[in-house]
Amino acid sequence: MSTLIDPTITESSDAQHTVLLPEDYVKKFDPDEYLQFYFSRDAIEDGTRVSLFALPVFAQLMLQTMRPSERETLLDIGAGPTVYSALCFRDVAKRVHLSDFVDRNLDVLRKWIRHEETIDWVPTIKVINRTEGGPTPTDQVCIDVEEKARGLVKSGGIHFADVHQMDVVPELAGKKVDILVSIFTLESACRNYEEYCKCVTNMMRHLRSGGRFVLGSVLEDDEYNSGRKTIFHLLNLSEQMILDALVSVGLDVANAKKYVLDGEGVMFIMATKL
Ligand SMILES: C[S@@+](CC[C@H](N)C(=O)[O-])C[C@H]1O[C@@H](n2cnc3c(N)ncnc32)[C@H](O)[C@@H]1O
């Protein structure tokens, strides 16, 4: 997972190479370490996460192909301590629901809502803005972008999620959103392909027919750094395995928009639920 791993760090930590498992998230996933590792100013300047290129492109496509009434609600499953989905889709949806399995991640998201210190999202906003084709944003533009995203999450909510449950987001049980986003979560949460397919089925219960599913996945890798010294297991997935799982839950994969970044070992796909 080259987008998520700084090779110099993995090499130096080989001596104590412990790989944590899906059941270790609650105790061992550290939101601050994760944000520092991937979203600090230095991390963003050193090499950007591919998500910040793919998601704004999908957002633009949604603006072009969906009427405002068809794209009111967005749910991000496994957002972790990050808010970049709300930043990328701020002009698309009216309400954004961020969800995750780890309470400490949800606490960080709530702190962000209350304007308390978390990470500085300005470097991320600048990359998103560049992908959107805008000029280098002023400080005021960055503040406005973040405030708009914050407002959408205030209108939506911050929720517990477990992809292994039939109602992945219990607080939204029985409710369906227009856009479902999940980035680098399923391959983190699942131990085998059978579980993966079950979790995709569970997630789809939150998406309405005609809605869009946006999935970001690591391809063919076994682990990733969740911080400088912490390594978590990943389910090793080929592109075909992912596509098969999506077809089996009724997503229109034949007409999907897909980016496979071989050098980066990641895939992003946007598909409509039939
Ligand atoms: C690699 S992080 C991705 C975070 C964020 N989506 C991003 O792109 O930076 C994996 C996330 O999956 C979450 N996760 C792990 N097990 C989960 C489960 N059973 N249900 C929902 N989320 C889970 C973790 O808490 C973590 O936030």
Could you provide a short overview of the structure?
The protein has 274 residues and is of the alpha/beta class. The chain has a single domain (17-272), classed as Vaccinia Virus protein VP39 (Rossmann fold), CATH 3.40.50.150. The protein has helices spanning 7-12, 25-28, 31-39, 41-46, 51-65, 84-88, 103-113, 122-131, 139-155, 186-189, 193-204, 239-248; strands spanning 19-20, 73-77, 95-100, 157-160, 177-183, 207-218, 223-225, 231-233, 257-261, 266-272.
Helix/strand structural class: alpha/beta
What is the CATH T-level topology?
Rossmann fold
Question: Could you list the spans in which at least 5 consecutive residues all have pLDDT below 50?
Answer: 1-13
CATH superfamily: Vaccinia Virus protein VP39
Beta strand count:
10
What does the main sheet amount to?
7 strands, mixed
User: Largest beta sheet: what is the strand line-up?
Assistant: 4-3-2-5-6-10-9
Ligand species = S-adenosylmethionine
Radius of gyration: 17 Å
Overall geometric form: globular
Counted up, domains total 1
